[in-house]
Amino acid sequence: MRCTCASARDWAAQRLRAAADRPQVEAELLLAHLLDCPRVHVLAHLEDALAPEQAAAYRALVERRAAGEPLPYLTGRAPFFGREFAVTPATLIPRPETELLVELALDWLKLRPRARVVDVGTGSGCIAVTLACHAPEARVTATDIAADALAVARSNATRHGARVRFVRADLLAPVAWADLIVSNPPYVATGEWDALPPSVQREPRGALLAGEDGLDAIRRLLAQAVSRLRPGGLLLVEIGAGQGDAAQAAAQAAFPQAKCEVLRDLAGKDRVLRVETGEPTTSF
Q1: Is 71 helix (H, G, I), strand (E, B) or coil?
Q2: Contact in structure between 132 and 163 (CB atoms under 8 Å)
């Protein structure tokens, strides 16, 4: 029986109904990945036939997605802030919610283009690379404790021509000082793990889990940032929905003289902890 792109897509969309929010779109993206072409090309050639080996390979991809494997791990890429980033099971998958943190950082950098920036727990490097591309005069360093994640981040920096210094480290350990610190750290509470979607549970546990209340990594980051964030500097940290009050209290305790606030995303959820230190005082 002749297998066309249309019939394969329709079968896959049905198979993915339980695993994907947009099963037909994901079916088309997997087909585009298999055929190494844009999705629009697939849509324009739905009546083209698939060779038997292509049909078999597509079936295998769809079954892996139906079993809960994240789509970006199957295609090896994910979009973020207008660019495409390589991802692997060693890295978190970039998400649109994190773009708010990047927007806030870029707004701050407009008046401080040569600032020293540190992205803590860089993962795929999507934050550091995006900042380096949009603020090319900034001196950007990215840290991560996982060597395999750093390898992915380096490849993304090379791909996008971004000048980023990568350091294998636990949070800010080797960093002497910074004007701007940004981070999307682990912030999932241990008790929330079982309620996460199966596809999210396939992502690195160490990049997600952060103790009983999900704030362990953020508290450690705040403690390290106290001696490293320069006067007049800015700290931006992504947090989980509902963590705003606790995160703000922890930040204010660590930085009693700083302006600490929690910003919400477009869905009205707590998303970014913002800590701005005062300008240095000049004595005469």
Answers
A1: helix
A2: yes
What is the length of the chain? Answer: 284
What is the pTM assigned to this prediction? 0.93
Question: Quick check: 94 and 87 in contact, CB under 8 A?
Answer: yes
3-state secondary structure of 167: strand
pLDDT tens digits for range 97-131: 999 999 999 999 999 999 999 999 999 999 999 99
Cα–Cα nearest to 207, from 99, 106, 100, 90: 90
Q: Which residues have C-beta within 8 Å of that of residue 25, sequence separation ≥ 6?
A: none
Q: What pLDDT score does 280 carry?
A: 60
Residue 92 is encoded by which pair of tokens?
């978190």
For residue 36, what are the contacts with CB-CB under 8 A and spacing of at least 6?
none
> The tokens of 55 are what?
């049909």
**Strand pairing of 116-120 and 83-86?**
unpaired
CB 124 within 8 A of CB 86: yes
Two tokens at 183?
């981070």
> Measured between alpha carbons, how far is residue 5 from residues 36, 41, 117, 233 in Å?
13, 11, 46, 53
